[in-house]
Design brief:
Mean pLDDT: 77
CATH architecture of the domain at 4-182: 3-Layer(aba) Sandwich
Radius of gyration: 40 Å
CATH superfamily of the domain at 4-182: P-loop containing nucleotide triphosphate hydrolases
CATH topology of the domain at 4-182: Rossmann fold
CATH class of the domain at 4-182: Alpha Beta
Structural class: alpha/beta
Strand content: 5-15%
Oligomer: single chain
Amino acid sequence: MAGMSYQVLARKYRPQSFEQLVGQEHVVQALANALTQGRLHHAYLFTGTRGVGKTTVSRILAKSLNCTGPDGTGGITAQPCGVCHACRDIDSGRFVDYVELDAASNRGVEEISQLLDQAVYKPVVGRFKVYMIDEVHMLSNTAFNAMLKTLEEPPDYLKFVLATTDPQKVPVTVLSRCLQFNLRPMAAADVQMHLGNVLGAESVPAEPGALRLLSRAARGSMRDGLSLTDQAIAFGAGSLTEAGVRQMLGSVDRGHVVAIVDALAAASGEAVVAQADALRGAGLSAAGTLEDLATLLQQMALAQAAPTALDDADNETAEIRRLAALLPADEIQLMYSMALHGRAELHLAPDEYAGLLMVLLRMLAFRPAGTSPKPIKAAALVRPAAVAKAVVAVPLPKVAPPALVAVPKVVAPVPVVAAPVVAEPAAPRLSDRLRPRPVEVEAQADDDMDGPPPDDAPPPWMEADDAPAPVAAAAREPEAPRRAELRETPEGAQWAERIAALNLVGMTGELARQAQALGCASADGREVWTLRVERESLRAPALVSKLEAALDAKLDIEVGVAEDSIALRTVARAEAQQRAAEDLATQHPMTRTLLSQFPSARILPGSVQPLTPTP
């Protein structure tokens, strides 16, 4: 029966010479030159992923070293004849001087010692003995140590060929004794071309789309590509169609991912959800969808960066270029990253389709399509668990906007909020600004207190070293310069009213805010203001001239420390609001109740902030 003698494609079409080797030109060139020039090393190490040709290169190298030519008089060559006794025996696995050892199942020192014991004997029929140790990284440390001396100084007739998929696990003492060649993963185009040649030799009809799918599914391994081709031939009953291969691989039809990208580009949530539901209804793989989506996004990025790199013969190239024009490059990169990370999260989701939908909605959330994102509510922000401070939420009375909270013993009503753990959005809504927020209370460890406080001692939250900073928005600084005490004067109020009518910015506005008005007179129909300015940089003639032009007045500047300026008034007003807010938070019944229940608790300094509503 023909079926009894069938040989799988991966073995039937294993390269028999360096010329037939696909995708490893750098290794072929180095070995061919070394064989031609007679510069032979005693140990070679071939690294690379599965199915890239490590064992194949080893066998070709063994044939090159032992080939005698068709007439039996040949020598070492880079082009083994394939017909001599040595070449045929190595291909069939019967050559006594070529030994292949699988280190995955023979990893102990006994197996290596037995192999090395035979190294003292000269070749039986060949020119060289070749020891090929596959998956050499699986050897034990003792086995590595046992072979080090022989590996460094083997007999002239002995050659070592080591192969591994994980060179990081090979000791450096072994690496330093070998010539190392890294076999690259196969490019999808090389795999597709080779599959086409194989199927042509097998007289199996195949659609280009089917070969393209198989070459991508091979993931750089020629052996995997040929094995999948064997499976596809059986699945398609002797022919390869794109639809059949896609069904066999469980791949998603490219039309689905194209529709998903179109929906994301249009920022249409309904379309995204509809596509996810269609994938669920068709029973298509969520992981395969994200994989194909990542592939499409990668090709879109390639179309933007290097349009000529795409294959114009591919009928999908036009569609890729159309999609690449819909999204900017940074958003394509972001979506690509989300697709990659989303595949790893699918097993954490309630079901894989829910995980797929959330990944797509995450892409949509970062595609605002001209609309500004909604601000994040401060209540949704969570303090990290690593913070060693207990936070107690104190609900304050509900305030209906635009009414304000009446603060006892304070002239101006000031609403109160607690400083959030992280920064708030830049422009919160008015309703969020007027919403009462929790007051943070910090609980001290009980073992920090040596004993109960005396009866006449002030409560812990009123200690002097816990007093809040004068200005809520200012960070604590070591030894800030002492500012002058505010002493309000009628001239200062008149100056503040005069400046408020102007729109002064930059250093000119800073001069107006830092100056103290000592008096105002009239001369020749113009105002003459006498100002006291401390900073020399603000007394520059150019700034004074600009302020005179803005006021249409004459300025008489003297040097001195200002005691009544617009800046001092602003700071004093902020301090008053801060004290009023802290008094309101401290006197609130709920706060007093919590502080009485937790004697070691106190209000965090600076956590209470006054917030003036926007008009």
